[in-house]
Design brief:
Blueprint lengths: L2 E2 L4 E2 L4 E2 L4 E2 L4 E2 L4 E2 L4 E2 L4 E2 L3 E3 L4 E2 L4 E4 L12 E4 L4 E2 L4 E3 L7 E4 L4 E2 L4 E2 L4 E2 L4 E2 L4 E2 L4 E2 L4 E2 L4 E2 L4 E2 L4 E2 L4 E2 L7 E4 L4 E5 L1 H6 L4 H16 L3 H11 L4 H12 L7
Parallel strand pairs: 1-4, 2-5, 3-6, 4-7, 5-8, 6-9, 7-10, 8-11, 9-12, 10-13, 11-14, 12-15, 13-16, 14-17, 15-18, 16-19, 17-20, 18-21, 19-22, 20-23, 21-24, 22-25, 23-26, 25-27
Antiparallel strand pairs: 27-28
């Protein structure tokens, strides 16, 4: 049975699972789907188009599936999908999609700290930590297990790879390749995310292979040649292949 405060509003067309807690002054619009065991503290707004999984926490002031801040949006029916086991802290805003991709996606097991903004058509993966007041512009992709510190500004269409650590206050308009620390001004490669990789169970041998692959790629004046050399050195190391494939498929270029 759901526990819904008498001071909350739930549209009759909203679809709720079981064992949800809806606190006072929450607003749940029509055309929304909420799974099981979610907790909405006071003053949470779930707008039309939201598709929410199970076991999520939404803290006061969170606004989910908001109208996109995109002048090309003309009211098309789009969605905002939130997975399971997320902690969405105070005043986080997540926009729904536009005609470009049709949906904004936030995966599972993420922590989005206070006043984070996720714009239209972003895809946020799993196991990600995002610090206070970080802002993602439209159509940003963040891959699994990234850590993004506070007050980071991410330009539209950027892609952030998995297992990275981005230092607080960064702003960038290029892609961040996997396994690294990104920081300084302008944002640049600052080495391998060694502590993060060890915490995730990467062996010292694999970490050294990643490190050497980056030395090889960045030392070469032409990225294509560096990628070819790194692949030749480590033809069967999936982490090196991830690095090479990410760089090859980057449309905005990578930080260096």
């Amino acid at each position: 049975m759901n526990q819904i405060s008498p001071l909350a509003y739930v549209d009759p067309e909203a679809k709720l699972g079981d064992n949800n807690i809806i606190g006072p002054f929450c607003y749940i619009d029509k055309n929304t789907v909420i799974g099981n065991n979610n907790k909405l503290y006071n003053s949470v707004t779930i707008h039309t188009g939201a598709r929410i999984g199970d076991n999520n926490e939404f803290f006061p002031g969170a606004s989910i599936s908001t109208k996109p801040q995109d002048l090309k949006f003309v009211g098309e029916e789009t969605t905002c999908e939130v997975g399971n086991n997320n902690s969405i802290r105070e005043n986080v805003t997540i926009s729904r999609g536009t005609a470009s991709a049709g949906k904004t996606v936030v995966g599972s097991n993420n922590l989005l700290m206070e006043t984070v903004h996720v714009a239209h058509d972003c895809v946020i993966g799993n196991g990600i930590i995002v610090g206070n007041a970080t802002k993602f512009a439209g159509e940003v992709v963040v891959e699994d297990n990234a850590i993004i510190s506070s007050t980071v500004l991410v330009h539209q269409f950027c892609r952030i790879a998995g297992y990275v650590m981005i230092q607080g206050g960064c702003r960038f308009s290029q892609d961040i390749p996997p396994y690294i620390i990104a920081g300084k001004e302008p944002t640049k490669y600052c080495g391998i995310n060694i502590i993060g990789l060890r915490r995730r169970g990467f062996s010292n041998e694999t970490i050294e292979q990643i490190h050497d692959a980056y030395r090889t790629i960045y030392a070469n004046g032409i990225l294509k040649d560096g990628i070819q050399e790194a692949r030749a050195k480590y033809p069967e190391v999936k982490e090196v292949e991830y690095i090479c494939s990410f760089i090859e498929n980057s449309k905005r270029g990578i930080i260096r």
